[in-house]
Predict the 3D structure of the following.
Amino acid sequence: MDLYDFKLDFVAKWINEKNGKSVAIQMPEGLKIYSQFIADELEKRTNATMFIIADACYGACDIAKDFSEFADVLVHFGHTEIPIMANNDRIFFVEISADVKYQSHLVELLPKLGNRIGLITTIPFLEELEKIKKWLEENGKQVFIGRRKGRAKYDGQVLGCDISAAKDISELVDEFLFIGNGDFHPLAVSIETKKKVIIFDPITQQIRDLADLPERVLRQRHAAISKASTAKKFLILVSTKVGQNRLHLATHLRKEAIDHNRKADLVVMNEFNPDLLIPFEADAYVSTACPRLAIDDFLRYPKPILTPVEFEIAIGIKRWRDYHLDFL
Ligand code: SF4
């Protein structure tokens, strides 16, 4: 529990103010190991009964919209709300923070960094961003933090489906420094801005770069598009998750397919699972849900799975030179 601050006093105060007698607790997979501790602590501080949601949760796009069937309020840990989505005053987003030990690593990083640096991060490390900026500036660097737009809540924050904060400062910086863990966010920034991204992972305390990952991913995407370009039948996949549903886009893509002499069926799912697609005839899939699905999970699918723009390249509406990643 030492690594993360779950702001439990603050959460308990909110539950009591809402007069919540039953509370649904929702967390991403990486935090679920803390859920029983959190439930115990919140029960001690409130008069409420806690229900831990076991279903997978990938982001604030994936709120347990049926929570009111068993709880008065929902407490969602680990993601910020998506500003463009409708608010619900029975849902509380807990912006957890991580205790980051970075000083000695920044000293090690300093000679490896260019002069103009863009700082980007994800929510657990956001509180440290201004401190890291100040330290780098005191040590002679020009540091930029991009403005939020769209689905991110804070300046400097990037999501797998929104890297506006990086694009905002891309022209001003030599490279990006990503404070966080995982490859997807820095990969998206690297492919879209064509700038080098250095990763400082406060959990593993490692400094690394993406090496040839962006080139490998682009090669794989090119191969998937080529394979799908001969497809006669597509399945266009739509998610029912509240923040991933792009039904209008899906129907538009279907029309494009038909206009280009391809067959396309719309298939709706909550949790994307290749096994659910077995009964259907198709040569390729198009995911209109979280942009990460086609990129991170392609190996799980027996047929090529494309993003919307990749689909348009495959059927000849766009060219490979128009390629960009999918964002919501
Ligand atoms: S759509 Fe994907 S990347 Fe965006 S918040 Fe949801 S899970 Fe994260």
